[in-house]
Structure formats: structure tokens, C-alpha cells
Design goal:
23 helices, mainly alpha, two-stranded antiparallel sheet
Length: 567
């Protein structure tokens, strides 16, 4: 590839969406969102790996494409095309804003995938985050605006933590490429603070438990076109950043790794309990994503504890990110098409089979992770002493229960109406479902002993099916006790209620207590001025100082004192 052509092509992948933000240019085009993806599609057709370094851009930025980033670009292109077809038509003003936010988020998403250094990755992902905030709140109701406020607050905190981590990395190395920074952190005497900032910031970005509050709210309140992007844009980029920023395979940190594994286990337990108590299919999918990302995070913790596992995750982790993004998008589109078909009372057996296939992909998500991580060398003993991750087969019990609950909720609850023809949604759904299945098959082919992994999970899966079928039968008979539902956002509602009380108390202090204190203080001061015996003397002195002769004399004396002290 010609060098100039390669530079222009790589720059145009995030640059063309930014260029199309200009209303005068965009007004002349019929489908600006589709046209903005054209450089990415062209880049996918080229089989050669290519990278460039731009030292004049953002204190040194690199862009490049290889096998890993090519797959992630392909996922993003598919999801963005599906989202542009799925978005409902809006008014002239809201439609213009919606297109602008789509293009802004798209530029950040594609640029973050192509970035080869920390500065570029941070810049593009921050651009993506604030653009996605616009997608959440544009044209939404009060619930969407509340979700946007929560997401924006978490986004600001995450960017502050990651910017501090970026500064720490800059003090250890002049080159902020991912490989160089990992080596510099490995040689550092105190990598713990850097890792803490990275993990905190990325947990906020990717909605990792217990910093997950914005994800269920977004799944429940956002429009279907935006929900379709949740798994493949903010969550996937957050997980990708974990894989690229953490020193996986190069540094053994048993204490940090073990702590991360326990966080992943807690995420699986809490996400399952909260997800089973959801009454809306899309909200349940958010908690299913929390469970699956909890397992992925626990695996990353195992990689920090065992460098052999970390090296494998660094090579194959992007495949699971692909699987997660496609799976959540496929299940969201399944929820949309279920509403359109159920509204016509024509739920066909083919549709039921497809829904079962989607639920099966959710059920086997933990298996896909260990298809990718079980390498031939020492695969039988690799996870024998890996702490919490050794419990990985029981994650399939969690995903099995959530998949069955999702199937139960589909025909019983109306989704948001979408003014898109049913055949279009069916095609989008089929493509996403086929892409998810293809990634799962690729992961199975990657594994040296896929049957060994499957054998490890048959007991939890069977147990989950027995529990789910029993609960389903009890619900049909009306014998199931009433259990209070957990609203989307769960713990955030308690925190928000507490913050509201604190805010009310502070406002009452500001409006009632402080004015009374001010009035009392002024009264005391006024009383003291009135009872002072030297008030007349002060007045006389003030009148004396107002004379020109005395004022000029004092000014000359002050000038002389300054000159003497200065010499």
C-alpha cells in the first residue's frame, strides 16, 4: 500500500465522521451515517496490516490495523449499520442532533480501535463517551435524561482516573505505545497505584460491578437503536482498554489479581439475583451483560496472578469482546422483533426456535471465554489453582437462569414501538445472530479440547434447566410466591435517595440556618460598634486622615521607607 494512501485511509476512518458533522456538508448527502463508514469498509477489504505514527497529532498518536483491530472494526461496522437502520425517524431538529451524535460516537469508536498508543486511545474513547451521552438523552423522556446524568457523572470520574494514569505512564516512558508502557510499568517499583486508577476508570466506563448503575438504566430507558450499540460500543471498548492497558503476561500481581477475581464472582452473584427479578427483557439483558463481563474481569484478574493466562488473554480476549457485542445486539433486536410479531399475534415456531438459539448463545457465554483461554500447553492444569476462576463452570448456571428468564419475559411484555418494517429487523437480527454463532464456532476451533470444556459445564447447565423449568411450571400454576422486583439501577436508587436527602439538608441549611447566623452576626457586630467608647476617637482620626497635607506626608514617608528597605 502506498504510504500516503495508507495515511489518508487510516485518518479518514475517524476523520470522515468528524468531517460530516458539518451541517452544510451533511445536508447535501442522503445517508451520511452510512457514508461515514465507507473508509472503514474499504480498510476491511485490504488484507495487509498497516500502521502510521503521527508525532504532530495529540503529542504523538499512532493508528494501525492488524488482525485483532480488523475484527473489531468489522463488528463496529455491522453494529453501526444495524443501528442506523433501526433508529426511528425524528423531527428536523432532533433528527439533526441525533445524526450528529451518531457521527461523533462513531468517530470515537472507530478511532479507539485503531489507536496504537495510550494518548490516541484515551482521546478517541473520551470523544466516544460524550457522543454516546448525547445519544442517550437526545429526544428522550425524564428516565432517559436521568440515565444520561448518571452516565455523564461516571464518565467524568472515569476520565479523571484514566488521565491520571496516563500522566503516570508519561513519567515512566516518553513513548506511550501500549507495548512500551506495559514494559515501563513492569519495571516500575510501585505499579499498584497505576493499576488502581486504570481499573477504577475502566470499571466506570465498562459498567463493571459495583460501578454498573448506568448500564441497566440505559438498557431500560434508551431507544432500541442506542441499546443495540451498548454492548459493542461503550462496554466493548472499556473491556478492550483493559486488555490493552493492563500488563497482562508481563507482571505477576497475586494480591491485585485475587481481589479482581472476587469482584468478578460478586458481580456474577449479584447480577444473577438482580437480573432474575427484572420484569423487562431489555433490563434483564443488562444484568446478563454484568454477569458475563464479571467473568471476563475475573479472568483478567487470573491473568494478573498467572502471567501464562495473561499472555493468552492478550492474544484472544478480543474474540470474546466480539462475541459479547454481537450477542447483546442480537438479543436486543430479538426483543424488538418479538414485540412487532406478538402485536400481530403471529408468533411462529421459526421465531421461537430463533429465540431459543439466542438464549443458548447467552447461556454458553462463559464457555466461549474458556474456549479462547484453554491453550494446548498445560491446558489440563492451567486453572487448577487459579482461585475464583476455577469456579468458572458455575457461571453457566447464572447465564442459564438468565436466559430462561429472558425467554419467559419476551412474549409477556411490550417493548418500545419501532417504526421499522419487520423484514428489516428480521434481517438485522439474523445477521447479528449468525455473527455471534460464527464467533462461538471460531472460539471452539481455537480450543485444543473443546469437548473437555463442554463436559465441565453440563452439570450446571442441567441444574439451571431443572430450576428454570420448575419455576416456569410454578408460575404457570400460580403457585409461585410474590417476590418484590428490583428496578433497573438497583443500588443507584438507594444512593440517589440518600444523596437527595443530603441535598435537601444542605439546601435547608443554606436557606434557613445560614441566614439566621448571618443576621445574628450582623446584630452582634452592630451592637459592638454602638457600645464602643472609642467610636468618637475613630471618627476624629478618620477626619484627620482625610486632610490632604497629612495624606501627602504619609505617602512620602511610605515611599521613603520602601526605598530604604529596598536598598
Amino acid at each position: 500500500m502506498n504510504t500516503t494512501l495508507g495515511i489518508l485511509l487510516l485518518l479518514s476512518v475517524p476523520g470522515l465522521p468528524l468531517l460530516l458533522l458539518l451541517p452544510t456538508l451533511r445536508a447535501r448527502l442522503s445517508r451520511p451515517c452510512h457514508l461515514a463508514l465507507l473508509p472503514a469498509v474499504i480498510l476491511l477489504t485490504l488484507t495487509l496490516d498497516y500502521s502510521i505514527e503521527l508525532p504532530w497529532l495529540l503529542f504523538g498518536t499512532g493508528l494501525g490495523i492488524d488482525g485483532e483491530s480488523r475484527l473489531l472494526i468489522a463488528m463496529s461496522v455491522v453494529l453501526w449499520i444495524a443501528a442506523t437502520f433501526l433508529q426511528a425517524p425524528a423531527g428536523e431538529v432532533d433528527g439533526c442532533r441525533q445524526t450528529s451524535f451518531f457521527l461523533l460516537t462513531m468517530a470515537g469508536n472507530l478511532g479507539a480501535i485503531l489507536a496504537t498508543g495510550m494518548v490516541g486511545f484515551f482521546t478517541f474513547s473520551t470523544l466516544m463517551g460524550y457522543g454516546f451521552y448525547g445519544l442517550l438523552v437526545n429526544g428522550g423522556d425524564a428516565a432517559a435524561r436521568r440515565t444520561g446524568r448518571v452516565y455523564l457523572g461516571f464518565l467524568i470520574l472515569a476520565d479523571l482516573a484514566l488521565f491520571e494514569a496516563l500522566l503516570i505512564a508519561a513519567t515512566t516512558s516518553r513513548d506511550l505505545g501500549f507495548g512500551v508502557v506495559r514494559y515501563a510499568i513492569e519495571q516500575s517499583a510501585t505499579p499498584g497505584f497505576y493499576l488502581s486508577l486504570v481499573l477504577a476508570g475502566l470499571a466506570l466506563k465498562a459498567a463493571i460491578w459495583p460501578l454498573h448503575f448506568w448500564l441497566p438504566l440505559a438498557f431500560r430507558s434508551a431507544r432500541p437503536a442506542v441499546v443495540l450499540l451498548l454492548g459493542g460500543v461503550p462496554v466493548a471498548i472499556g473491556l478492550l482498554r483493559m486488555v490493552r492497558w493492563l500488563p497482562l503476561g508481563a507482571l505477576a500481581l497475586p494480591g491485585v489479581g485475587e481481589g479482581i477475581q472476587w469482584v468478578g464472582l460478586a458481580a456474577a452473584i449479584y447480577g444473577t439475583v438482580a437480573g432474575l427479578r427484572q420484569s423487562h427483557p431489555r433490563a434483564l439483558l443488562a444484568y446478563a451483560g454484568i454477569v458475563v463481563t464479571g467473568l471476563f474481569v475475573a479472568t483478567l484478574g487470573s491473568g494478573l496472578e498467572w502471567p501464562v493466562i495473561g499472555a493468552t488473554i492478550k492474544e484472544t480476549g478480543h474474540l470474546f469482546i466480539l462475541y459479547l457485542g454481537f450477542m447483546l445486539a442480537a438479543l436486543v433486536s430479538a426483543s424488538v422483533i418479538a414485540d412487532k410479531v406478538t402485536a400481530r399475534r403471529a408468533l411462529h415456531s421459526l421465531l421461537l426456535v430463533a429465540h431459543v438459539a439466542g438464549a443458548l448463545l447467552l447461556m454458553l457465554a462463559p464457555v466461549i471465554i474458556f474456549f479462547l483461554i484453554r491453550v494446548p500447553a498445560g491446558s489440563d492444569l492451567l486453572f487448577a489453582d487459579s482461585g475464583v476462576v476455577a469456579l468458572w463452570p458455575w457461571w453457566t448456571l447464572c447465564t442459564t437462569l438468565l436466559a430462561l428468564r429472558w425467554l419467559y419475559l419476551l412474549p409477556h411484555h411490550q417493548q418500545e414501538a419501532v417504526s421499522v418494517p419487520t423484514p428489516v429487523i428480521a434481517v438485522i437480527w439474523g445477521v447479528l445472530l449468525a455473527a455471534t454463532a460464527a464467533i462461538g464456532l471460531l472460539a471452539a476451533l481455537w480450543c485444543d479440547d473443546p469437548m473437555g470444556v463442554v463436559v465441565d459445564v453440563w452439570r450446571p447447565v442441567v441444574l439451571g434447566l431443572l430450576i428454570g423449568s420448575s419455576v416456569w411450571w410454578m408460575a404457570a400454576k400460580g403457585a409461585l410466591p410474590v417476590i418484590p422486583a428490583i428496578p433497573p439501577g438497583d443500588l443507584w436508587l438507594i444512593i440517589a435517595r440518600w444523596l437527595s436527602r443530603v441535598d435537601h439538608w444542605m439546601m435547608s441549611v443554606g436557606h434557613q440556618v445560614l441566614p439566621r447566623w448571618r443576621a445574628a452576626g450582623l446584630a452582634v457586630a452592630g451592637h459592638l460598634l454602638q457600645v464602643c467608647k472609642w467610636q468618637k476617637a475613630l471618627d476624629a482620626g478618620e477626619r484627620l486622615l482625610q486632610r490632604w497635607s497629612i495624606a501627602v506626608t504619609l505617602l512620602l514617608l511610605l515611599g521613603a521607607a520602601i526605598v530604604l528597605l529596598g536598598t
